[in-house]
């Protein structure tokens, strides 16, 4: 199967849509009083103590990881990740102001929000960006070590949920774990190396370097 290069407009639109999905997922979890894995989970956890929208906290917590992105993944990846983080923050703030969400079923909130977060991550990563701190680390591990993004994400997620157990009641912790699993399953299934033929300039440059390194 021939690889198809994404156009610049496709990349911009995918990162915008992915940021919107992640922002909405964060808003639903925040309304339900739940957390999840990754930087989203950390932002929601910190949101229990800081009166700021989770998307804004998400962007602020990501700042230290951008230096890792710049050093390990390059300027293009870093710029796209900054754009995605800003989009997530904006989508979260706007949805908090524009929507009033009443959660009657925590299971629906956990599964729905986890799926939104997973699909948003899928869109952002496939178009040459990272979804913040933990996302940067998992993308780096896939690019450099071939580790599955979804599986790496799940391991980190359960560590974050373990820390959340000191602050959340048992029922909310269980629903939070359900959300993290839902997000991890989406990324584990559809972010496998070689599964998707489309690519962005970031991947094209990486493939070019790999070809030069293996050339006789």
UniProtKB/TrEMBL annotation:
<dbReference type="InterPro" id="IPR003740">
    <property type="entry name" value="YitT"/>
</dbReference>
<keyword id="KW-1133">Transmembrane helix</keyword>
<dbReference type="GO" id="GO:0005886">
    <property type="term" value="C:plasma membrane"/>
</dbReference>
<protein>
    <recommendedName>
        <fullName>YitT family protein</fullName>
    </recommendedName>
</protein>
<keyword id="KW-0472">Membrane</keyword>
<feature type="transmembrane region" description="Helical">
    <location>
        <begin position="77"/>
        <end position="95"/>
    </location>
</feature>
<keyword id="KW-0812">Transmembrane</keyword>
<dbReference type="InterPro" id="IPR051461">
    <property type="entry name" value="UPF0750_membrane"/>
</dbReference>
<keyword id="KW-1003">Cell membrane</keyword>
<feature type="transmembrane region" description="Helical">
    <location>
        <begin position="12"/>
        <end position="32"/>
    </location>
</feature>
<dbReference type="Pfam" id="PF02588">
    <property type="entry name" value="YitT_membrane"/>
</dbReference>
<feature type="transmembrane region" description="Helical">
    <location>
        <begin position="52"/>
        <end position="70"/>
    </location>
</feature>
């Amino acid at each position: 199967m021939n690889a198809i290069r994404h156009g610049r407009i496709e990349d911009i639109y995918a990162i915008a849509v992915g940021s919107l999905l992640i922002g909405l997922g964060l808003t639903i979890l925040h309304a339900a009083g739940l957390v999840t894995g990754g930087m989203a989970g950390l932002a929601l956890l910190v949101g229990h103590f800081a009166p700021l929208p989770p998307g804004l906290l998400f962007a602020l917590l990501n700042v230290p990881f951008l230096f890792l992105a710049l050093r390990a993944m390059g300027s293009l990846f870093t710029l796209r990740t900054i754009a995605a983080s800003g989009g997530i923050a904006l989508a979260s703030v706007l949805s908090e102001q524009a929507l009033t969400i009443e959660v009657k079923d925590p299971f629906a909130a956990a599964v729905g929000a986890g799926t939104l977060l997973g699909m948003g991550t899928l869109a952002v990563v496939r178009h040459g960006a990272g979804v913040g701190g933990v996302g940067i680390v998992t993308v780096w591990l896939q690019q450099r070590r071939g580790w599955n993004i979804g599986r790496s994400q799940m391991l980190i997620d359960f560590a974050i949920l373990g820390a959340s157990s000191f602050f959340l009641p048992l029922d909310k912790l269980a629903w939070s774990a359900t959300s993290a699993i839902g997000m991890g399953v989406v990324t584990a299934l559809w972010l496998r190396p070689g599964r998707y033929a489309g690519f962005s300039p970031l991947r094209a440059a990486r493939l070019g370097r790999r070809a030069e390194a293996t050339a006789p």
